[in-house]
Recover the amino acids of this structure.
């Protein structure tokens, strides 16, 4: 992590490590660094990792079911399925490791429909926004 003199950094660079379940930074090794309390270098590394995770491309498809009693069934596939419910409708988020076309069955009340689902590239933040939207229940 690059040091920032305007923030009180004395060195041009600091190394942040993740050891034994916690982050440590070179700036915390001396008395001056330990007295600072909060390490901005660790904060910057954590924020950078969160950003990278949210900005990465994932492959997903969104299926909306308007019926009350429903289930999405995908046989013999490595897809991850998340179910989000809100106000009587259900949204299924289907994620795969790469672009894929998947055969699925949607049981809706007493009817079963066969679907062909194509996952497409999306940013992970778009999927997370759907999964964590206000008023949603995730299962």
């Amino acid at each position: 992590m690059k040091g920032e003199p305007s923030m009180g950094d004395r060195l041009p660079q600091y190394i942040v490590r993740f050891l034994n379940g916690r982050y440590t930074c070179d700036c915390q090794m001396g008395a001056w660094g330990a007295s600072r309390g909060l390490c901005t270098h660790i904060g910057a590394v954590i924020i950078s990792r969160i950003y990278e995770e949210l900005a990465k491309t994932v492959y997903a498809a969104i299926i909306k079911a308007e019926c009350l009693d429903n289930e999405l069934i995908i046989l013999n596939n490595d897809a991850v399925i998340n179910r989000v419910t809100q106000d009587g409708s259900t949204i299924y988020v289907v994620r795969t490791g790469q672009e894929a076309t998947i055969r699925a069955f949607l049981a809706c009340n007493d009817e079963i429909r066969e679907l062909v689902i194509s996952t497409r590239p999306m940013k992970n933040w778009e999927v997370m926004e759907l999964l964590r939207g206000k008023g949603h229940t995730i299962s």
Notes: Residues 28 and 38 are 9 Å apart (CA to CA). Helices lie at 31-36, 40-55, 124-131. The beta strands are 16-19, 22-25, 57-65, 70-73, 80-86, 89-96, 101-108, 111-118, 120-123, 137-138.
